[in-house]
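Hello,

I think I submitted the iron/sulfur cluster job twice by accident. Can you confirm which output corresponds to this input? Input:
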Amino acid sequence: MKIAIASGKGGTGKTTFATLFAHAIRPSTYVDADVEEPNGHIFLKPEIEEEKDFSELVPKIIDEKCTFCGICADECPYKALVILKPTKKWLFFPELCHSCGICAYVCPVKGALVEVPKKKGVIRKGKAGNIKFMEGILNLGEPTPVPLISSLLREIDEKDQNVIIDAPPGTSCPVVETLGFADFVLLVSEPTPFGIYDLSLAVELTRDLKKPFAIIENKYNPDNHLLEDYAKKENIDILYRLPFEEEIAKSYSKGELPFERFEESLRQLYEEIKRRVK
Ligand code: SF4
Ligand code: SF4
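Support: Only one job matched these inputs. Its output is below.
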């Protein structure tokens, strides 16, 4: 079973919960798909055993063969190529290139535009005790994390047990890509008006994707019923609550988490999700 831990925005406690959960249900597999800012390693402290480059093809124009007709630049949907016809020069903006391959497809001159690999990030694998650890790290300035996320998630093996996917924040393409791989989604939110607004966007997306899901309340305060009221209105279960406590905040700031304290209750949560997925 693959469970994605998502949230409508960053900073809601998504990684805190995902790492606590992966630790509680070990042997497990923790996959950090928040490739623009992966930080699960801070808490799980894995030993990295394998690192491989993630590359995609980008265009390279061969001056001797190019006729500077400009078709490749005209057809590039991201304006990553500019052909200066009068001076017979070309410019390429790698930070705009999505490696879609259209320029190579439309070029009418054989050998004028070739595709060369460009390193866009890395995929790392390792172990934190009996937690299998996987993460993607996107290079700064890359236009989209989606191909790296998809490549990382395809590395999840059939044999990998109890898979927890730490999704990117937000509700855009990287999250859609990640939730597509999940059997169940847990949406982490805080009981604040802003938190609930962002959660409502994530709920809409998860419903559109037709994934079974529930809410995890972070910074739970028994006197605050905002999130509970929202969940009731939307007919969504809140399956777990992480309390709002100084102890958790202090250990978080040191890169540590009180793993043992939540183990038993998180194992029960896992059993509950298994029942719902069957
Ligand atoms: S389409 Fe081909 S020949 Fe035309 S400008 Fe681009 S690389 Fe050169
Ligand atoms: S690969 Fe796609 S995005 Fe990149 S330059 Fe070619 S057409 Fe543009």
